[in-house]
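Hey,
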Amino acid sequence: MKKLFANRKLLIIGGAIALLLFGVGYFMVPSGLPKPIQIQLQIGPTQTQPGTPIPAEPIGPVAPVHQTTLRGHGILFSLGERVVNLADPGGYRYLRVSITLEFLPESAEFYRLPPEKRMAEETHFKEELMRQKPIIDDLVISILSSKTFAEIFSLEGKQQLKEELMEQLNASLGDGKYVGAVYFTDFVVQ
């Protein structure tokens, strides 16, 4: 009889441990059971409902030129070094940055030009940009000085600053001048 109680106790303790392990395991698995994956295969042409317009094939390039060119293959234009006070309270923090803008040509023909003609096109483009340099400088200084240390200190902050510069420059320059990239060749925040 005593042996029977001992076996029952072991059985109850074993059942309690199994329930405890099941409960812990249930809460340890974050999303429960894996969800089934549904794959739908179709052989042959797609069936369209009558009256549904069939989309026309796109004519010409779908992606703009700036997405198909490699970085650094556009027209590089240095703005030089800038030192601006940041917008932090007290005005004790400053940013020293050197910026180079990469402009993308209006057409892909630019990349197929012989080197001499391409150099002449770049020179002509940069001369036109020099006339707009005060506008570019004013815009860049305004954006840089509106930032706080916390906004531009991190890598994400620098990337957001580049994107804002590109967006604002593209909105204000116009006339076939498209900034495809902004490069910081020096970036010191104090």
